[in-house]
Amino acid sequence: MTTRVGVVTFPGSLDDRDAARAVKLAGAEPVALWHGDKDLRQVDAVILPGGFSYGDYLRCGAIARFSPVMETIVEQARAGLPVLGICNGFQVLCESHLLPGALTRNDHLHFICRDQRLRVENADTAWTADFAAGQEITVPLKNGEGGYVADERTLDELEAEGRVVFRYLDVNPNGSRRDIAGITNAAGNVVGLMPHPEHAVEALTGPTTDGLGFFTSVLRKLVA
């Protein structure tokens, strides 16, 4: 039976089709999920893609948090459903309190678009099992509000519990605290990161194919 991975489309989503293509290249069936529909269509995992959900009004991800589809996703994620939030999807996860902290305006106040080196800090999550801890990868990064912030107690807890999943290498592109590029929840089924692995799945269009490991990882997790 083919693994079904849902990709949510919000008004303003930009990278939902890229995420669906990455899912297909990994060997799973991408399933389109609409922001206004609570039904997750019996998917085995969910991706919240990058973009500008609801035009980024109020705060990035703040309105998407209250969409009907997120009501179901939050409930299912707390029950163990694997969920990956990419860029705007990471912002939505933080606004939904599935992940701690927040994403704020880049410290240099400019939108940034570049190929970004990352270090994998945690290879034990549902979305990183095909990587090795300490592995260095390169995927595209594009954001204007990508600075990860949290209070010191939360940051210390993330570090102590091994919940920092990715860290920026060479340069901190947006002022994220402790060079954090991505984090996970305590159970390891919910992961959020600012860089875009779905843009690094084919040699023709990406700087590398390093991003494909995110999507193959969840397949391995689900069939284990």
What does this structure look like?
- It catalyses: L-glutamine + H2O = L-glutamate + NH4(+); N(2)-formyl-N(1)-(5-phospho-beta-D-ribosyl)glycinamide + L-glutamine + ATP + H2O = 2-formamido-N(1)-(5-O-phospho-beta-D-ribosyl)acetamidine + L-glutamate + ADP + phosphate + H(+).
- Part of the FGAM synthase complex composed of 1 PurL, 1 PurQ and 2 PurS subunits.
- This is Phosphoribosylformylglycinamidine synthase subunit PurQ.
- The structure is a single chain.
- This protein has 224 residues and is of the alpha/beta class.
- It has a single domain, classed as Class I glutamine amidotransferase (GATase) domain (Rossmann fold), CATH 3.40.50.880.
- The chain has 5 helices and 11 strands, in the order βαββαβαββββαβββα.
- The protein has a 9-stranded mixed beta sheet, with helices on both faces. Strands 5-8 form a two-stranded antiparallel ribbon.
- Helix 1 crosses helix 5.
- The longest helix has 12 residues.
- The chain is globular, with a radius of gyration of 16 Å.
- It starts with a strand and ends with a helix.
- The mean pLDDT is 96.
